[in-house]
Amino acid sequence: MGFKKLFGEKIEVVNVGLDSFKDDLEKQGEKVVNVDWTPPANIDDKILQILKKNKAKIDIANEKVLEIILNGKPYLVGLDIARNVIPGMKENLLLHSGPPLTWDRVCGPMKGAMIGAIIYEGRAKNFEEAEKLAASGEFIFSPCHEHETVGPMAGVVSASMPVFVLKNEEYGNFAYCTLNEGLGKVLRYGAYDNETIERLKWIENELYPTLKNAVEYLGKIDLKNIIAQALHMGDEVHNRNRAATSLFYRTIAPAIVQTCDEKNVTAKVLNFINGNDHFFLNLSMPVGKVTLDAARNIDNSSIVVAMCRNGTDFGLQLAGTKDSWFVGEALVPDALYFPGFTKEDANPDIGDSSITETVGLGGFAIAASPAIVQFVGGTANDAVNYTLAMYEIAFGENNMYQIPYLNFRGTPTGIDVTKVVEKGLTPFIDTGVAHKDPGIGQVGAGVLSAPMDPFIKAAIGLAEQFKK
């Protein structure tokens, strides 16, 4: 085509790169086709070559891991006190979310939660006493993930706390999680005031025994089935749990009425669950944990079995690299903040709740729950695009968790670290936001993409396995 003819035609633009170029052209009335492309991760090509050379072995291992994940049968089988059931639990042990860390690196909300737990356990009377005790070495800190447990936000679990007990009936392994306290100024967001401790004591003394008796009466509850239904009702069971909580309520309420003799306790427990849309979060998380733990220690697999944050670091573990942690810096989410708070108040991303994304829920299923993207001014179409992007880094699709808008396509499942680094695309996560200082609590909710650095380290760690 000659220059004269070229400039006589209407030019259409194909944009590859920054979305801002597309946005500027569209503002001028130009038609733009946007190509969603990112360069590969900044990783040594030798590592990529090792992974490509061993792709057949990796794929065989990943098929086995995916089969285990899809065949998982997570049931709620009971409730108990942490010291009685969590492996390795001790009176001076505090479990926390995310990868390992020491007291000097503990962020504000986690410090508040640890202090609250020490007060709750009766080991200190106030913030100053508890902080001194925590810094003294009297308490041991360990990741929840290393004890078959998960915890939302700060994720702190102490010996006296009640926990849900989940069993993967296909493979026989267990997972544990505390009971959800509700939103706002709560322990998991770093609160430790009298109201927070009183609520925890009520959970221990009334909510826990009531639920324990009700679950014993029912025998067990099929949580996978509840999640599958909730996805059809607008949840993604990370940041939106309204439908799942309602389904759980319908299951448990008759059993509570049958087993609780105290009318006022029955009413209070039912009202608490009914008024707490996030109650099911503390069940969807251990569903992810008990499902993925069964797929650990599969040699050569590049699939992620844990992805979590402690408010300082972002960490992950692979099925094929035993229990090694691959860690990078935690990022601050893009969020909608409560009145009076801004991004300057936000702590970096925190919590084990990204286990939901790891198992194919949360941000990976956000097309089923477009209301979530309103947290950051997004649209329903954005939600669909986020989920579609996650298929690019998933090894397979779920046979049970399905998205109605995508013609009931299974959610992207099995985060493949080789695909993450090759495509330069990291997992999309939706999450709550805690204040950076202890004692204040939740200040918003939002979304973010996981940092690339831990995935690069995980790819290197997997490649090292093939050098041996």
Strand order of the largest sheet: 7-6-3-8
Q: What characteristic shape results from the CA principal axes?
A: globular
Would you identify the CATH architecture of the largest domain?
A: Alpha-Beta Complex
- Find the CATH topology of the largest domain: Enterococcus faecalis V583 fold
For this structure, what is the CATH class of the largest domain?
Alpha Beta
Overall number of structural domains: 3
Q: Provide the helix percentage.
A: 25-40%
Radius of gyration from the CA trace? Answer: 23 Å
Structural class: alpha+beta
Which regions are unreliable across 5 or more consecutive residues at pLDDT < 50?
A: none
Largest sheet: 4 strands, antiparallel
Q: Quick one: how many beta strands?
A: 17
- Beta fraction: 15-25%
Query: Count of helices?
Result: 16
Q: What is the CATH superfamily classification of the largest domain?
A: Enterococcus faecalis V583 domain
Q: What is the typical, i.e. mean, pLDDT? A: 92
Compute the separation of the termini in Å: 57 Å
